[in-house]
Specification:
Blueprint (H helix, E strand, L loop, with lengths): L1 E5 L3 H14 L4 E6 L2 H7 L7 E5 L7 H7 L6 E6 L2 H10 L4 E3 L4 H17 L4 H14 L6 E6 L2 E6 L3 E7 L2 E6 L4 E4 L3 H7 L6 E4 L2 E3 L4 E5 L5 E4 L4 E3 L5 H14 L1
Parallel strand pairs: 1-2, 1-3, 3-4, 4-5
Antiparallel strand pairs: 6-7, 8-9, 8-12, 9-10, 11-12, 13-14, 14-15
Helix pairs in contact: 3-6
Amino acid sequence: MKVAILDDEVHCVEGLVLHLRKNFPDAEIIYKGTRPEAALEVLPNAKIDLLFLDVEMPGMNGFELLDQLQETKFDVIFTTAYSQYAAQAFKAKAVNYLLKPIDEIEFREAILDWQEERKKKNNFSSEKISDLLTYMRREGILKNKIALPVADGYEFIETNEILYAQSQNNYTQLFLSDKRNLVLSKTLKEFEKLLDKYFFIRIHKSYLINPNYMKKYYKNDGGYLVMQDGKTIPVSKTKKDLITSLFDAITKTS
């Protein structure tokens, strides 16, 4: 059993380590950490079977972290001190969880139950997690938050704060609704992949936009958009029909 642990409180991480070593001495701890932004760099390529994931962490909670991962190839047991909303959601979606402070007997039973499900191949974790995230988003618990690599570390922002992104060679300049600019150590192509499920549109080789901030589309001069901050952005020939369709759809629903 290969395990990872993520909790912003060191004593909680070490408590889980002690429970594992006492009750499952053969368990191999591949990763343990306290910072979700650091875990985002490790987990996509980590060869683990099970992740113990804290729900409430500063900057990015456990749900938001899972939502940002492209795919989960491991199972998850959530740990939380906030039983009221989290436990209700977990029960509704049949997701494994432990309430803090974590009781050793309950910990052992949770692992044994998980192992039994795994043997029966009944633990379709990726589907369960997807259902849970959908539920959380619908209930307004989960926000579309991402961790962005900046010069001095990471910054957590909600995707609806992003107006558009502009390519700067091997970097990307981000323009936000609060009029701030961020320079990311990612190419625009990499950033586009990160935002793929949030309906951002690559309208030009150098620009990725949030369609919620489109203000006007001009068909002349090759075609260009005016964003809500007044920025004019060229539209490539292959995206003109898409932009026209978007404005038509908005007009019909308004």
